[in-house]
Design brief:
By secondary structure, the protein is α+β, with helices and mostly antiparallel strands. It is about 50% helix and about 20% strand.
């Protein structure tokens, strides 16, 4: 009985060995077997598992913020991808060094053609490394305001206030002028301008504007709103109010709400907002005749 079991095991081992050593492809001196493909697949699978474990460990930490977690996770992911790629190539028995050495001119040509792509990749590494931009930051690039949703090696995705996803190449974020409202502090200062009649009580206007701002739940009480007489306009005293908020993304709605409150309080207290009056002078029939004679 034991001899039969041993023979069966030996037969199974021989069959498995034959399957693994079965030659699938042959070209010149290069041969590809089932064993090599299985080895490459195992390396890829191990790489995927390690990448997920590293990401899970990074996001599990409470000592670093979400922006750092995302940056570290992305950097480790791409490092693992590069290592897995070269290990899989080695297991498959592909020697790429002669190809790299013998095709220098071709690689230079490809590099020149893909220089923008390489620039985006380098910019992605810079963004993830120095963290000038993080996931969750509210930024303004080329007049487009949005919240950073995802940073990849080549592109960065932001979501606008209109809930539109815009994908920017990373080079655009590192080479163009960019405003990051969330870089140093979550608290950001905004302003609202309004003109009032020259006969208006400035102290009353200041109280009304501050009260209108503080009625909004998105406006911080500390630091408190500040109202200044900005300039003497042609037909009005130009007032400017500065207020602080943490809600950067809803500012158009917040500003509209504050403006409505200011207008309501001005009307209740008989504060006039002047507007320029223009008179149009149309020439009479006699003037037209004189011009025609001339």
């Amino acid at each position: 009985m034991n001899d039969q079991v041993n023979n069966l095991k030996e037969n199974i081992d021989i069959t498995v060995k034959q399957i693994l050593e079965y030659e699938l492809f042959s070209l010149g001196g290069y041969k590809l077997s089932v064993y090599e493909i299985v080895g490459a697949l195992v390396i890829i699978l191990i790489g995927i598992i390690i990448s997920k474990l590293v990401k899970k460990l990074i996001y599990k930490s409470d000592k670093i913020d979400i922006g750092k977690k995302f940056a570290f996770a992305q950097i480790f992911h791409y490092l693992i991808v590069i290592v897995v790629f070269f290990l899989a190539i080695k297991v498959l028995g592909v020697n790429i060094s002669p190809l790299l050495l013998g095709s220098g001119a071709i690689l230079v040509g490809i590099g020149l053609g893909l220089q923008n792509l390489f620039l985006d990749f380098i910019s992605g590494i810079i963004i993830l490394a120095d963290r000038t931009i993080k996931v969750g930051d509210v930024i303004d690039i080329d007049g487009t305001v949005g919240k950073v949703q995802e940073i990849k090696m080549r592109t960065t995705t932001i979501v606008t206030r209109e809930n539109k996803s815009i994908i920017f190449p990373n080079a655009a974020l590192t080479t163009n002028k960019l405003i990051n409202f969330s870089h140093n502090d979550e608290i950001v200062l905004f302003d609202i301008n309004v003109g009032v009649h020259y006969d208006t009580d400035i102290d009353l206007v200041e109280r009304l504007m501050k009260a209108a701002a503080l009625e909004n739940s998105d406006v911080l009480k500390e630091p408190a709103p500040v109202v200044r007489l900005e300039s003497f306009g042609e037909s009005s005293l130009d007032m400017k109010m500065y207020y602080s908020t943490r809600n950067l993304f809803r500012q158009p709605i917040v500003k509209s709400s504050i403006r409505k409150a200011i207008l309501t309080k001005f009307r209740e207290n008989n504060v006039n907002i002047p507007y320029p009056i223009r008179t149009l002078d149309f020439p009479s029939g006699e003037d037209k005749n004189k011009k025609a004679e001339n």
